[in-house]
Structure formats: structure tokens, C-alpha cells
Amino acid sequence: MEKSGLIALGRGKARNYEIFFLKRNPFPAVGVPGEAPHITVDRREDIERFQNVVAELLDVGTAIITVLVGDYGSGKSHLLKLFKYNVNAQLLSTENGVLATYVKSPGEDFRDFLLGLVEDIGRPLLTNYSEQVIKDHLGSDKAKAEAHLYQKDFRDTFREGTWDIGTFLQSSRYLDLFREIRQTHFRGIRSDDLVSAFLALSHPDHSSKAWRWFLGERLDKEEKVSAGVEIGIEDDDAAYSVFRGLRSLLKAIGIKSLVIMVDELEKITYIYATKRAKYQDILRQMIDDNTSDICFYFAIAPRQWEDLTKEPTAFVRRLAGNWYLLENFEENYTKELVERYLDVARTDSFSSRAARAKFQDCQASLCPFTNESIDAVQEISHGKASEILLVCRKLLEHLYDNRDKYQSITKGFVDYVKKREHWLEQKQP
Asked: Domain map of the chain by residue range?
């Protein structure tokens, strides 16, 4: 027994997948997409539909609602994150001013929804915008800006232009400055707390307090004073007021349009009836109050969509005519998905000639998978993207561990793994 414990962790060895012309096992251990997914196959109709939605949003400013209905593991989350990534990469920093957000779950009430929205927008982005607003304001009237400084030794630095926002705020009566900016740039926003917290994100000493306010955390009296806020986001009414204010604030700083993607809409079907009815009414109000420059994308599983549409609520009526079904992958797309994941992890030594020489029963782009093994993966996963990835990861692990017996992933090898991994066997119809 090792002195340091029961298990000698230093003796373990990671699997070396280079024998398969792979730098690593490219298939994720959890069938959940990353924050910036770069691999997708098929989905041409879904992507074209989204392209048309964005085009209409940019050209006309129409408010658009889309409901994406698909099985668990079919790739709904992947698509939504893919849409978000491309909008923010192409349209956020341009004159178009479009921001896409991904809310991973609507939660149990509108407060949960808002906090999920804010968390996805993120502290870094809001802080950058906050700093830019303050910098522009200070630069517009240097003499007026200097009047806010109480540290005389900083005034020369400010006049010379060798200063930063954080040091300026630490050397000034920053709350007076915030009130001035609020009256100048954000006069139409009712929530003074929202604007103060937004501006306080730029203050090195109070940024964390401001962000905690945005996340709905409780602040004590002293923390509220230093962040320039009076009340927190304590209930749905306060949350909706902040949502409306945030929408106006984003427009004021140049973000004209929003694309809001809400995953796992089925979660609201699990809320008890009275609370669910109230929540749906607020969501309906959100849709009705935003009739331009916004796009809502909801994702939900088929059975829960059926349950939800049985309720004759105003929210459901807003959604009912705007849904479409996300189909599972057919076999040719399952094959393409596997190929693409393998491709991103290939070693420098990989070539079609080398692959065919070592894996004679495999198509070069698929090695160490054979075509017949892809048929088996399709059968086990039923074409659900997340299941395809999990099954392929497990098969690759077993192939490495049994490389003295098996040279490639064949149908027979898949049968062998199914006997070892009962969860694979249970996925068959």
C-alpha cells in the first residue's frame, strides 16, 4: 500500500490513441455541446431557416418566434449554441448590433429566466460596454469630468490622458458621476438600480457587488450603497422590470436586436399549475411587449410539447403556429458526424495511404471504424446525436484496451462491447 493513500494515482497511464492516427479520443465523455460548437452535419434546412430569420430581423426588424421540437439527444442544444456563436461572432461587433443569448433552462419562474439570460450575456461583455459608456462620457467634456475628482494628485494624470477607467472611478465621486451618466445617456430607463449596477461593473472595488446584484444575490445595506442600488431582483415583478430596462439599456449602447434562445422549455411543464400559469402569462407578456427587433427560439421535447399545447393559454397560442420538428440523423449523416469528429483529432502522420495500409477493412476517413460498425452505431443510437458520440467514445476506449485482440471497430467488436457495456445493449429497440 502506498503511504499517500490506497490508490497509487501516479502509476496510471492515459490511453495513447496515436495508434489510430488520433491525438486523443475526439468523442466527448458527455453528449453535451460545448459553448462554441464547431462541428455540425445535416441540418441544412434548420440552418437555412435560421439564416432567413436573422435576415428578416436585420432587414425588417420583425419579432419572430420559433419552437424547435426534438427528442432528447437529437441536437437541439447543439443547434441553439451554434446559432448563438455565429450571431455573436458575425453581428455583435458590427454596425448591425445583434446580440444572441442562450438560456439553458427557463427555470421555475421569470426571475430564473432573467438570471439565466444575464449570466449568459456575461460579466466581461457587460463590463466592457460599461467602461466604454463611462469613457465616452468623460471624454465628451473633460472639464466637467475633472470636477468629479477628489484626489488632486490624479488630475494631472487625467489631463495628460494616461489614465484608466478603474483608477478614475477610485479617485472620484463615482456615484455622482453615475447619476450624471444616467440622466444623460439612460434617461428613458425606469430602473435606476439597473443603470447604477451596470456602471458599477467598471469600478474595481465594487464590480463584484454589482455583478452579484445582476445575479439576484442579496446585498447588505453597505454593499447596496457602494453599488448605487436600493433593492434587489427579488421576485418576478422586479425581474420583469429589469428585463425591460435591460432591453432599453442594450439599445442605448448600440445593441439594436436580440436573439433569445431558450432550451429545455419542457421544464415549465413540471411546475405546479398555479405557478405555471403565472409564469406563462409573464412569458406571453414578454412576447407581446417586444414586437420588433427580437427573435425568440424555444426548444422542447416532443412529449412535453404535446402536453404544453393541450393547455389553451395565451402563451401557447403565441407558439402554436411557429414550431417544427428536428429529426434524428439518418445513417449517412451519422457516418458524416463520426468522420468529422475523427478528422479534428487526426495526428500529423495521418494520410489516406497510411490509414488504408494499417486499417485495411476501414475507409480511410473512418479508421478505426468500419462501415458496418457505423450501421451498428446507428442501430444503437437511433440517430440521436448525443448517443452517437457517447457510443463512439466507448467503442474507441474498448478498442484501445483490447488492441491485442482487435485491430479495428467491426460489427463483431460492437457486439463484444455490448456484452461488456449493458447500457449499450439496452439502447436497442
From this structure: 9-32+329-426, 44-97+256-325
